[in-house]
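Hey team,

Sharing the Methyltransferase family protein run so nobody has to redo it. Sequence (240 residues) first:
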Amino acid sequence: MKPARIPLTVTAPNHWAEMPWGEYYREALEQQLKPWMAKLYGFHLLKIGNLSAEINTDACAISHQVNVSLDGDPMQVKADPLHLPFAEKSVDACLLAHTLPWCQDPHSLLREADRVLIDDGWLILTAFNPVSLMGLRKVVPVLRNRMPYNSRMFSLMRQLDWLGLLNFEVLHQSRFQVLPWTRQGGRILSTHVPALGCLQVIVARKRTVPLTLNPTRQSKSRNPMRQTVGATRQYRKPQD
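Structure output:
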């Protein structure tokens, strides 16, 4: 198995539209995430990475939503995702939409998300599935250096193992969009052979184990996070 941490050799896309069929991927992810977005609650949602910023989270009840990235647009906080400028346990939910595939140190990224999340906070991960048509195209030499095949593709089981080490409880996992070049992704194939879907989603919650059993739940201490100028509920470029 290749090591998770590598020297950064490629640049992540700033927009889904920079990838072939990227808008199809974004729409498919939004469809899959919509029911879960309605279940998120709290005060602060971090959308880490440029691609996360373009995911429509209008169905989410969390009103203060902040885009965090080193560059790109839209963005409210310019920061390295590996060193988030937020206090420990100050964020209710983190969205990493295809942030891991272009990250040089995915372990550190997950640990940083774990650090800023409150107890029982939500973590949503999306990525490409290596066991798919997308993964097969990645082995073609002429495509290997092109976007999005220059990204890293971690198996679902490997990501679940990382989350288990951080004591996250996985509530949902799925693979879909078997045919990447169609808007619907091949509905019949996605229904009967979802394991071959080129996209995968994981929804998890940060859990803590109490040292002693106590039926009385103590109130959780919260570190306030300042409202970010320009943070809004939805970030999508207007259609031409």
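The domain at 16-206 is CATH 3.40.50.150 (Rossmann fold).

Ping me if you want the raw files.
A.
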